[in-house]
Write a structure and sequence with these properties.
Layout: E1 2-10, H1 12-20, H2 24-34, E2 38-44, E3 51-57, H3 60-72, E4 76-83, H4 86-94
Antiparallel strand pairs: 1-3, 1-4, 2-3
């Protein structure tokens, strides 16, 4: 399974939802896991992004599907980045 970093920014509608029903965050996480990924950890942030989520997915297609599904709801915008473990990165450079 591959690791991905998902940076999320709430839209105006998303901020309203989280303010009125903060537990919605956990509900969305459960929905995301049903899409075939595993959430490893998640943090709320201060700055240009509202959340960072580290997730594990079988491939880029599944990670992309999650990002598109979340974005299509109109409550968040996402940026998803594949993450390469440093040991694996070093091995690749030595080839």
């Amino acid at each position: 399974m591959a690791i991905y970093v998902m940076l999320t920014t709430l839209t105006s509608e998303g901020r309203k939802t989280v303010r009125e029903k903060p537990e919605r965050i956990k509900e969305v996480n459960e929905e995301v896991e049903k899409m075939g990924v595993r959430l490893l950890t998640q943090y709320a942030l201060m700055g240009p992004y509202d959340f960072v989520t580290i997730l594990e997915a079988p491939n880029n297609e599944v990670a992309s599907r999650v990002a598109v599904e979340l974005g299509s709801r109109g409550t968040v915008q996402t940026m998803t980045l594949p993450a390469i473990p440093v040991a694996e990165f070093i091995r690749t450079l030595k080839k």
